[in-house]
Write a structure and sequence with these properties.
The chain has 196 residues and is α/β, with parallel strands linked by helices. It is 32% helix and 18% strand. The protein has a single domain, classed as Alpha-Beta Complex (DHBP synthase).
Amino acid sequence: MDTLELSRAITALLNGKVIVYPTDTLYGLGADIFNKDAVEKIFEIKKRPRDNPLPIAVSDFEVLKKIAFVDDKTQHLADSFLPGKLTLILNKKDCVPDIVTGGLDKIAVRIPNSEIALKLLSEFGPLTATSANIHGTNTPGIISDISMQFKENDVALYLDIGKLDSQPSTIVDMTGKKIKIVREGAILKKDIPDAI
């Protein structure tokens, strides 16, 4: 991806538009998490229920700490697996709009191990990281199939790096007294306790 394309993506996001961008698993629908109208577009485009929280992608652990509360266990997991295919459910900070989390006080956040995603996130800031599909359907691995799901005006820009078809991230809920593995994905369940 060239600098011009990255610049166009950032401009679109600044203008409250939705983009499709690559992660280390699948393509995601990206919008500025602090722009409520942009987040609302994600729900509309995906036909996603408003009470179904949107996962968030950030560029690094320092940014993660600005939007969520972190303890030592979370720090250890992050040191072991991030950037990578790990999604952490954490208690959110007040700066995160309720629309992003479906009114819950928790947030699902990850740092994708994708050079393009990390560059975009570091230059722009936190983005929604929900899969680029209609809610309840499979996520296509190629942009041509993804774009067929949406109307022309739904998505301002597609960042195409070819086929993406990887295992989903492992989701770990860190908000209780005991950690809870919500979904086993690319990172095996047995590897989580060792990291902590």
